[in-house]
UniProtKB/TrEMBL annotation, chains A, B:
Native organism: Methylobacillus flagellatus (strain ATCC 51484 / DSM 6875 / VKM B-1610 / KT)
Biological process, per Gene Ontology: methionine biosynthetic process
EC number of the protein: 2.3.1.31
Keyword terms, alphabetized: Acyltransferase, Amino-acid biosynthesis, Methionine biosynthesis, Transferase
Domain of life: Bacteria
Record-given protein name: Homoserine O-acetyltransferase
Length: 338, 338
């Protein structure tokens, strides 16, 4: 089912970490129709190297997110190449000049989209994988009365320190290529070596020892680890390096404490939504351990570990059958009580 | 206590993976004196970015490895800058021309050192951290009658697939720097950006989420993750890039199965030594899971997990007090039954 894709122009956005984003554009997709009460909404914020399109496997009459019943909205993260991004912004936000747009800035822009443009009164379920999960948690903490349930998959509310060190490492791999030029390279001279290294450094973090030991990359259609690594190179070559770095900055600065005067525990305690936190059992950077620490601080949250050998990728929409089924059932259960 | 450091010249070494290493030099250190029976030997093969000198914290009258009683031998891994290495070999083994020297090749050269040059009849304990652990296991499988006990710390007998993917990732970080030139760079034009990226990509793999979350890098004297990452950059800048890559190749090709016609289980079953395998509880690349799989295949092995938040680094000689104490006690116990 094709979504309706649209753009809203938000003008000059003041940014929570300082500065502004000029001529801010938020691109979003919707499936289904808003009911008259404005309450049948499922919100799917996008993840790193994803767009609204990446959520398609979760959406359909076969799934929990049935557009016949729900009005599904997927707003694209700033920096992802669809919403305002270094790759197509005008100066001064062009390329290396793109400012830090925080998770909070994303949430607030999305809130304007929902309330001012779409007439949404309340969100039945805010749900997402990875950086989409991060945004769902921020939503529930920033607008507690607006969000009825939350489903956070392979994500945490803040970027924990190991996760930041991991992000510093992929950044270093890209920056090892002098063609990166701190983002000042020309469009036609991208840092291809660095982009490939970025993908290759990222890949082993995304899965697990079991995944590699049992050659589960075969289930993804790859004959060897090298073939898998090459695919990660290719996938990252297709991205604009400045866009990747902009989203990475958003991610590493994710701090739910910023919603409550620097105290993450205060912000988490503020969440009213029935929340299910589903870390992957062997997620190497959004760890189950840290998801549990956060879960214990949310009044109405339950941590349900997704037992999977696919590491962080366990929650990738539609990628793995059993995991996808678990996710659909859980979303269904949350919607039933939303 | 200063060791005696010496070099033996092994001539032209035929290599197990094909080709030869010309004019092979093995640099080794010894502490203490060999007894008349030739049996009071502790063998400490070196690890990645280590030399015999790195083992000093384990050696002394305060420790299990007392040179008054034991004859301690630490042979340097080929490629580590002391034994034959790309950085100082003559053509054709110079720099990028350095061949793949396998763990088996290292073991066999060390065996010649011990038997032909030092008059060793039997090894009481083969012990090492990381790639030193790998070598200890290979020793016990290749020369089962020669090794009485083994202590493998944060290592496995073979390089498991996740570990290989991790190594591919640090290699990619170095190779993202075009100055690397596939190893053909001049001595005075090293790939500094790549070396820094290598260190930075390596670092988050070496510790654990707890280490970063609890800011345990402070126990190492660093105020921030960034300070820690900079230290990893510095440390790797001090290494020759071709030497790093040569040792990395040795590591990723570690395959104990090569000692028994490609069957690792056969090779492990061949080990006669009383063996203690001590994986770090949260080692990200020499995983406890895979250490257990191997341990179950060795007749006289016990797996004792080293409960530590320091990831792979838990076993680094002398770095962490409690871990160092556990290691010393375990070595002591093994030597008591050697």
């Amino acid at each position: 089912m094709q979504p309706h894709v649209d753009t809203i122009h938000l003008g000059t956005l003041p940014l929570s970490q300082g500065g502004v984003l000029e001529d801010a554009k938020l691109v979003y997709a919707t499936w289904g129709r808003l009911n008259s009460a404005g309450t049948n909404v499922v919100l799917l914020p996008t993840y790193y190297t994803g767009t609204h399109d990446s959520y398609r496997p979760w959406i359909g009459s076969h799934s929990a997110l049935d557009p016949d019943r729900w009005f599904i909205i997927s707003p694209n993260l700033f920096g992802n190449g669809l919403s305002s991004s270094p790759s197509h912004a005008q100066t001064p936000a062009q390329r290396a000049g793109f400012p830090l747009v925080s998770i909070r800035d994303n949430i607030d822009a999305q809130h304007r989209l929902l309330t001012e443009h779409l007439g949404v009164k309340s969100v039945a379920l805010a749900m997402g994988w990875s950086l989409g999960a991060v945004q769902s948690m921020h939503w529930a903490a920033a607008y507690p009365a607006f969000i009825r349930t939350v489903f956070s998959i392979c994500g945490t509310a803040s970027c924990w320190p190991l996760n930041r060190a991991f992000l510093a490492s992929v950044r270093a791999a890209l920056a090892a290529d002098p063609a990166w030029m701190d983002g000042a390279y020309a469009h036609d001279a991208p840092p291809t070596r660095g982009l490939k290294a970025f993908g290759r450094v990222y890949c082993p973090w995304a899965y697990s020892s079991t995944f590699f030991r049992q050659a589960l990359y075969r289930t993804l259609g790859f004959d060897s680890i090298e073939a898998l690594l090459l695919a990660w190179e290719e996938e990252h070559l297709a991205w604009d390096a400045c866009d990747l770095m902009a989203m990475l900055k958003t991610w590493e600065h994710a701090d739910i404490g910023s919603l409550a005067g620097q105290s993450a525990s205060k912000a988490l305690a503020n969440i009213r939504a029935k929340t299910i936190i589903m870390p992957g059992s062997c997620d190497a950077y959004f760890t189950a351990e840290e998801a549990r620490i956060e879960g214990a601080l949310i009044p109405n949250a339950e941590v349900r570990v997704l037992d999977s050998p696919f590491g962080h990728c366990a929650g990738a929409p539609g990628r793995f059958e059993e995991e996808t089924r678990t996710i659909a059932m859980t979303a269904h259960a949350l919607l039933a009580m939303a």
